[in-house]
Amino acid sequence: MAAGGTYLPGNGIIAGHFRENDHYLISRPEGMNDWLLLYTIDGEGYFHTPAGERSCGEGDMALLRKGTPHSYGTKQGRTWHFMWAHFEALPEVGLLPVEEVLICPVASSSVQRQLARMFRSLLQYSRDRSRLWQELCENQLSGMLLIMAEHLTEGMDPRVSQVMRLLSSRMQEQLSLEELAEDAGLSVSRLSHLFKQETGSSILDTLNGMRLDQAAMLMTHAGRTATEAAFDVGFQSYNHFAALFRRRFNRSPSRYRDG
Q: What local confidence, expressed as pLDDT, does residue 259 receive?
């Protein structure tokens, strides 16, 4: 039985705290228009996507990518105690490998406790509804995604990790491949190949994804128009921005902004 869920109106965040038996099953063959972040407190669940099935046990974080056909539920003969949050777009997802569902084991008990506290804070902020509750909720989500990125990129080539950090911190700038390659100490062709090999995405696609997610947040929470948001995050052409935005969010920037 669900231990409680909360809908956060206005920014598309839904969060909850569930304890489910092995009859629990969610199936979405068409995928979702948002992301799902989940942390398992104890027990075991699973995710099934076109790439296969992945288990999610005690201390594991999971991130289900938007648009991915999927089902998930409690493993047979087990219970599954977990906290979860749906959200539309946050720039930090750009720091993560591109997979249908990411499973991130967290072995450290202190980090596990930190994640549980962050999820509980997210739920508390949603109930209190203070003046800045939406921003406080997003801060918790961003922090959990950064913890996940830190764990999942530990084995990543440090030069690729360095480029990911540069893209995230300087997304508004017109960064060239030559500049990134020089900073990483690699040729352009070697960096491009290594980046795609390590992340599953090209440098340009990764940067554009970060920019689009940031633009969506600016329109939703900062009152920026679509045109203003496009140039705020570093796009030089509004038409190019709008075409990429439709592809990522399945609607135009103006429709997205108007809800």
A: 66
What are the 10-residue block averages of pLDDT along the chain, 259 residues in total? 44 85 95 92 96 94 93 97 90 83 92 95 87 90 93 83 86 92 94 90 91 86 89 95 90 84
CA distance 126 to 124: 5
Q: Which residue has the tokens 């948001």?
A: 229
* Largest Cα span, the chain: 55
pTM of the model: 0.70
Do residues 183 and 189 touch, judged by C-beta distance below 8 A?
no
Query: What is the C-alpha separation between 31 and 66, in angstroms, rounded?
Result: 7
Q: Are 186 and 194 in contact (CB under 8 A)?
A: yes
Say which amino acid occupies 140: Q
Overall fold of domain 2-152:
Jelly Rolls (2.60.120)
Predicted local confidence at residue 257, as pLDDT: 82
Long-range contacts, stretch 244-250, CB < 8 angstroms, 24+ apart: 244/208, 244/212, 245/212, 245/215, 245/216, 248/209, 248/212, 249/33, 249/89, 249/212, 249/216, 250/33
Please tell me the CATH code under which domain 158-258 is placed.
Answer: 1.10.10.60
In which residue ranges of the chain is CATH 2.60.120.280 found? 2-152
